[in-house]
Every structure is written in structure tokens, then in C-alpha cells.
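Support request, please re-run this one:
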Amino acid sequence: MAERALRNHQALALAGLRDSLRSGHRRPLLCMPTGAGKTEVFCKITEAALEKGRIVLICVPRLSLVDQTVERLRLHGIEHVGVIQGQHHLTDRTAPVQVCTTQTLDRRGLDCLPDADIVLVDEAHIVFKFQREWMADSRWAKIPFIGFTATPGTKGLGRLYDDLITGTTTQSLTDTGFLVPARVFAPPSGTLPDLKGIKITNTEHGRDYAVGELSKRMQAPKLVADVVETRQVMARGCPTLVFAVDCAHATALHEQFCAAGVHAEYIDAYTPPDERERIRREMEAGRVEVCVSIGCLTLGVDWPFVSCIQLCRPTKSAMLYTQIIGRGLRMDRGKLDCLVLDHTSSTERLGLVTDIHWAVLDDGKPKPPAAPRDREEALPKECPTCHFIKPPRTPTCPNCGHAAKIVSKVTTINGTLREIKGKRAPSHAEKQAWWSGFLTYASQRGKSRNWCLANYHAKFGAFPRKLNDIPGPLTDEMRGWIKSRVIAWAKSQGLPDHGARRAA
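Re-run finished. Output below.
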């Protein structure tokens, strides 16, 4: 097998998984952002299992990911791979590594599952009912299930997985040059679309706006700044992915781009794999400038050449937002950053992608039920061709056969997008510098290690991890921060101003 060295953050993620399994966890979940090299860790686990003579079962949530997973395993030197998927040409029950979709296993049933010594679940935030039944089956209680995802925010995920390991963060990968930074432009604060009252429903990306109701609400002007004009002014020459509300909206945007002379393509869930691959190649070669889609380009899409994301659909889901922005953060030759043009104010709602984190898994405890909602009754409509009154929800006229074309009612309001800059997360080097400074101060003032820990936690909101206990320079900034903290403590004890300053 081909030997590929892991990068530092990948090695730490793998070590965290191993520690979790050694401590008795049987269902660990590894969180690694898009672009962190999840595949490298994935394949290292597979290699280690094969060296011990174990059978590995890899589950993916979409058919399009099956062949992609097989290809990536082969690139890592894992050749003997079978596929469980209908009459797939790689069907081989003797292969020690089997790749399948959860839906295929569901159709075959719990009693027909293949043997496995370890199960790897890709995009583990997408959970199927069958998967819950499978992982709860007593026959599989001793078999490790390892989940992989960039967005572990799905409701009830904590009932399936018993440990969350954060391999690294988007901010850390940006600071160390493994991802490009995102430059986000969004409407000025206060121009949020009115999305109150829109039904929230379960999606594969967690709780989000119901697309049908979102489309209906978007009949009123809700996108800020013209999509085509903004892209042409701010991102001309940047390969761009545009995410729309629904098919009608995506089709309308595609037509607008084409009318403006932009070489644009359109992809939805029904686009054949070979056509999707053609668009990818054309876009990478620079012959296609823009690809308009809805949500089918959020998973398993490795298009590192994309350097602009246009968000044209509001979302309440931090997972979907993270997956969408992540499509543009991969490194590529000559790429310095990713331009994010948010026409929906979703960034103001959710924060920058570097601000979004999951510290724990959702336990799935039910929330109070929402009040029942009245549904509007569908009404008959007049056929525009023969004026026949059609029954409700009848797109094709039974009198003349005219098929109504779905027209997007999403409109825009005048405005411009402004850059949003968030509070940058401290780098590892900055944390080390402060920890070393605290150690120096403690040595000079006779303070304990617990004093250092308490002040570090006050500064960074966490205890020091993987830092060296080496004293370092005590800067004026550090002295000022410590002094202000001591003064605040002294005042809380009722000391007068001069006493508080003497304590500092």
C-alpha cells in the first residue's frame, strides 16, 4: 500500500480517535472541516484495519459518493475494494473493504447486512431511520462505528455517537495555510429578510426553513443587490458557485447570467454524473464562469478552483451554511482567498464560518411542540391559453394540454454588500505566547500553576492544550491585561481604588 504521511492536524485527529476507542467508546464521531484531509484519516484507519485482517464497511449517504470513495481509496493504495450497490461492476463479496450507501443496506434489511469488523460512516450528520435501527441492533453492539463529518449539529446525533472528537477548526486551518480565508460581503446590518413565521423542518443539514414556504415568502423582495451585477462587479474572473432557493429560482438566475453574456451552467439533483463532471472540467479550464445550483453541490464536491460563493437562499442551518461556504475554502494554485457574496443576511444570523463550532452532540431531547398552523386551501386556476378553470394543483390543463412553466417569484431590492470582518480566533502561536507569559509572571510574583490556568481560561475560554510549559517574554499587553483583571478582582472584594491598584 502507498505510504502517505499525515499532516500534524490529521495525526492529532487520528490519535484522538484511537484514544477514544481505547477509553471504551464504540461510537466516536470525528469532526473535521472541509479541506482538512478527512480522506487521509479515513484511509489510514482502513489501512490499519486491513493490516490486522479486519473487514471494513464504508457507508456513504449518496450514490454519487460510492465511486468517488472507491477512487480515493485506490489513490491511497487500497485496491481490493467491493461495492454493494445493485449490479455495480465492482461487486465483490470477497473484498475486505466494502463501500455502500445506507439506502441500499436498508432495502436489503438488517438480516442481510454484510459482515464487518469496523464501520466507517461518511457525512455522518446525515442520518437515516435505518441507520438508527442498525446501530441499536444488539448484534452490532461490539462493532465500532466511526462517523466523519464537518458539521456534527444534527438533532439527536448524540444518541448514535458517544464521543465527539474535534480534529481541527476552520480558523486553525486558515491560520496555518491549509485553507484560504473567506472574505464575506453581506447586506448592512438591519436589512435582514423578514423570515418570521416560516415553518422550520428537519433536513439532512439539520433544522432549516421549509423550502416550499421559503419560496412562497420570497415572492416579496428579499435578496439584497442584483445577483448578476454584483458578481460581475466584485468577482469577475472568479469561478463561482451560486446557491439558489429552488429549481425555479436557480433556472431564473441561470438565464439571467446567460443573458448578461456570462458562460453559466446549471446543476440539480437530476443532472447526470457525466454531465456534472463535464461542467466541473469546463469550469476548471475557465470555459465556464458560473455554476448555479440548489443544494446538491454541498457534499462530496471537491472543486478547489472555486473562488467565489454566492449565497442567494436564506438558511437557518449552521450546518448547511458551513457546507456551502466550505466549497470555496480549499487551496488551489494562485488562489489567495474565497469571496463570499451573501445576498440573504444569513451571515448576520449565523456568524462567519470560522465562528461556527459544535462543542457537544445534540441529545435529541424533544422540544415543546409548536402551535398547529393553518394551511391555505389550494384554489382552482385559469389556464392562460384556453381560459379553462383547472382543478387545484393541476399544472397541465386537462382541456388544451398547456403545461404551466414554474416561474421564480424571487426578486431583489436595490442595495450593495459590505465586507463583514469577524473576531479572528487566536492562533496556536498566540496561545503559546500568552501561556509562556503567564508562566513568567507567576515565577516573578510567586503565583501557582493554578493561577496560570485560571488566567489562561479567562483569556481564551478554555484550558491550555498541547502547549509547552516554557516561560517566555512578558509583553506590555500581557501586563496590562493581568493588571486590569487583578484590579477588577480587588474591586469586587470591596477594596478602594488605591488598594485595588496596589494589589495589581
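Residues 498-504 have pLDDT under 50 and may be disordered. The first strand starts at residue 28 and ends at 31.
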